[in-house]
Amino acid sequence: MTASIDRMNPHTLPDAGKIGYSQISIASPGRLAFVSGQVAWHPDGAATPTSLADQTDIVARNLQRALDALQASTGDIVQMRICVTDLDNKSQGVAMTPIFRFLAGAKPGLTGVGVAALAGPDLEIEVEMIVQLAA
């Protein structure tokens, strides 16, 4: 399903489109799915990797699995919230590379948040999504 989501980067705000997201996303009336924060946990219970890059790859796969379960695509994502422990320019760059690869050109609203900790002591990133569904 390709949702009817209008994306805006008004000239009165910084051009987020150059970076890969939209300042404003307008979703048409309809059903929304609120996808809980996905972390670097494998469905089979395998160990969580220690690097942020490897954790982000697993998070992106989990996000794709959630979209598949919803019969949705990255173009249907209205909003993403990305939480990273010890967020700085370096960790932001490491995390956003796999996230933008996952988005494959879709430009939902994005919010990045630096946090002190996540649900487990070994976790470095968590991403949640709001997805527009077919009516």
From TrEMBL:
Coiled coil: none annotated. SUPFAM superfamilies: YjgF-like. Pfam families: Ribonuc_L-PSP (PF01042). InterPro entries: RutC-like_sf (IPR035959), YjgF/YER057c/UK114 (IPR006175). Signal peptide: none annotated. Belongs to the RutC family. This is RidA family protein. It comes from Roseobacter sinensis.
